[in-house]
Design goal:
four-stranded antiparallel beta sheet; mainly beta; two-stranded antiparallel sheet; 10 strands
């Protein structure tokens, strides 16, 4: 669990690890800015895996519900590893063994 204090109140994130897979329990439409479902739906989203190779992909399950503007929307996330075990610099901080 991670808690972030923000002006609108605390934001709480729930993460769990299952062997080499990492999940976030979240509103299923949180990773998209294209639409929001009319009601809050929560589920585990597999967002990270260990030992990835460049080009590895995985998908979430499909979610179907009505968006806040009335249209039924099917949502499925697809994740792609575009680089594996690389070094990156963010600001003035250098990181090695990064998977993007």
């Amino acid at each position: 669990m991670e808690e972030q204090i923000s002006p609108g109140g605390p934001l709480i994130h729930f993460y769990r690890r299952n062997s080499v897979e990492y999940y976030e329990y979240m509103e299923i439409d949180e990773y998209t800015n294209s639409f929001q479902y009319g009601k809050r739906i929560y589920d585990d989203i597999l967002f990270l895996k260990e030992n990835l190779s460049k080009g590895d992909t995985w998908e979430s399950k499909e979610f179907t519900d009505t968006a806040d503007f009335g249209q039924v929307i099917v949502l499925q996330y697809r994740f792609v590893c575009v680089a594996s075990d690389v070094s990156v610099v963010v600001g003035t901080n250098a990181f090695s063994h990064v998977y993007i």
